[in-house]
Write a structure and sequence with these properties.
Blueprint (H helix, E strand, L loop, with lengths): L1 H18 L6 H28 L1 H14 L2 H7 L23 H22 L2
Helix pairs in contact: 1-2, 1-5, 2-5
């Protein structure tokens, strides 16, 4: 939780510093820049979650299985080293654990939700 709060604090400090370079208005620029930074963190955290869940391992397995389903693909797979195992079902290990996945998702999500609420309250 400390990482999430620290990341949210850094998001708003960076947006305050960057908003000094724009002329549209300090509050509006803080909201816009922190929304963009938060959305970037949320998307990055989401991509990290997809990678560590093994989604792409399933796609790789389905391509290997599709290639072996045809006569030509089965013949070619005998001569290349793309498929070392000859099993019908393979288990891929999920050892791609990223330490910053949840902090990125949470801090980006908090920043996006807070910015949406603040922009709705101030500008409607």
């Amino acid at each position: 939780m400390k990482k999430v709060l620290f990341a949210v604090l850094i998001i708003y400090l960076l947006s305050a510093v960057f908003s000094l370079f724009y002329d549209d208005g300090f509050q509006l620029e803080i909201i816009n820049i922190s929304f963009l930074i938060g959305m970037g963190l949320a998307v990055t955290g989401g991509l990290m979650k997809v990678v560590e869940s093994g989604f792409f391992n399933g796609i790789q397995y389905s391509f290997k299985r599709f290639r072996r389903s045809t006569k030509e693909g089965n013949y070619i797979s005998q001569f290349d080293d793309m498929d070392q195992t000859k099993e019908a079902h393979e288990e891929y290990n999920k050892n791609n654990k990223f330490a910053l996945t949840n902090p990125f998702l949470l801090s980006g999500g908090i920043a996006v939700v807070v910015d949406l609420l603040v922009s709705y309250l101030f500008y409607t």
